[in-house]
Amino acid sequence: MKWMPVIMSILFSLVSNFNDKENGVKPEAYPLYAGKVQLSSSSLKDDSTKLVSDVAGNPLFYSREVLTEACETGVCYPIQLTLFWDYAGSFLGFSVPAEFPLTKDGHKEFSELDYFLLFTLLNHPDSKISKFTKRDLVKVNQKKQDESDAVSGATIKVSNETLVSGAAFTCLSLWNIVNKNTENLDPKNFERTTSVSISTEDLDSKLSSLKNLSVGELALLLQQAQNEKLLRKFEIQMQLVNQLEGLPALQSLIISNYLNREKYLYPEANEVLKKDKKIAACFLGMTHFGS
Questions:
Q1: Distance between CA 129 and CA 117 in Å, rounded?
Q2: CA gyration radius, the chain
Q3: pLDDT 10s per residue in the chain (291 long)?
């Protein structure tokens, strides 16, 4: 958790100059990007996803407003937040409005650590939680904790992963939204797109020089490198983290997300990620702790 200092003077500087009244976007809506944006709606029926692009039309990420129930009893407060995916369709982050913080058992607000655990879970597309229903979560925790209301109190573990204590249903609900049925995150479904492609021949050279890539190109590049199993290599991980200093916050977050999805992140690369203040500010900017 060293990369998440509690007090940081740069918190929310990423969004301080953001204003997009023309599109009706609140200034705090996109804590990952500080510039003006253009929004493209999905052509799919009943899909509220937006493709967020810069003023030149270059794709940045996908955005979706989420309002859903964490449990079926009506006791839980509803989940209200914005979810983001990168241009390649992988989890990017979230934005939790200060007036509607996420809550857990007893309507206690999420702590900074709780948000970090949630972020880590959502950034794990191969999580064992995919095999569970809400009923399964209760059964698993009852076996370990012998509690009648197991999901409310104790910290639940699924395999080696830790869910937010008292908010297991919230974790499961959001993980399903983030990581299941993401085929709608396709540029072809949106009005305004920019053609972005990375050839295999260009992959090695582009990995060694990221500063000239657009945000969309970077996401597609890292997805391709992931598919070709390059991100598991020590030299590639170090090549990427050693370029963080010269990159904007959004690009640094994308690199961090892809590397943290690898089964093994080398300690040397992890140490550089922890020290990057831009990534820490991005994370805290997603929550009310960044306000």
A1: 14
A2: 19
A3: 434 333 222 223 333 333 333 343 444 457 788 888 888 889 988 888 999 999 888 999 999 999 987 766 666 778 999 999 999 999 999 999 889 999 988 888 999 999 999 999 999 999 988 888 877 776 655 555 444 344 444 556 666 677 888 888 899 999 999 998 788 888 888 875 555 566 667 788 888 889 989 999 999 999 999 998 999 999 999 999 999 999 999 999 999 999 999 999 999 999 999 999 999 988 888 987 765
Other Cβ atoms closer than 10 A to 6: 9
Beta bridge partners of 108: 104
Indicate the pairing of strand 103-104 with strand 108-109.
antiparallel
Q: What's CA 67's distance to the chain center, in Å?
A: 17
Q: Fill in the DSSP letter of residue 188.
A: G
pTM of the model: 0.83
Helices 249-260 and 234-241: crossing angle in degrees, nearest 10, is 160
105 neighbors 166 (Cβ within 8 angstroms): yes
Phi, psi angles (nearest 5°) of residue 122: -65, -25
